[in-house]
Amino acid sequence: MANKTTSEREIHAHGLRMWREDGAPAGREAEYLERARELQAITDNPTAGLLPNPMTQHGGAIPPVEPVEEAAIEENLGEFPNRMTDQGDRPAAPMPRKKAERFLRET
Predict the structure, then answer these.
(1) What is the pLDDT of residue 27?
(2) What does pTM read for this prediction?
């Protein structure tokens, strides 16, 4: 129990130190104390926010049905922009008239 009160005192001291370093903004002491608690929780449990990798949960016994990366690549192979599309067929910046006319003739 003594460790818990010591820990709480350290957290409180850390929160006050952060509050003073930021110029001691009025009415925000509780916010800095909460930040100090969160930092201590992260320090105490560094892996608490990590999600397990679903591919390693079964020891690799269950292979994926289809590779996700290749499916995303296959979707993008079919369409390329041309004059009838609204994306990618025009340069983003304005250009001189002669260059624009040449560009329109080429597409």
Answers:
(1) 93
(2) 0.44
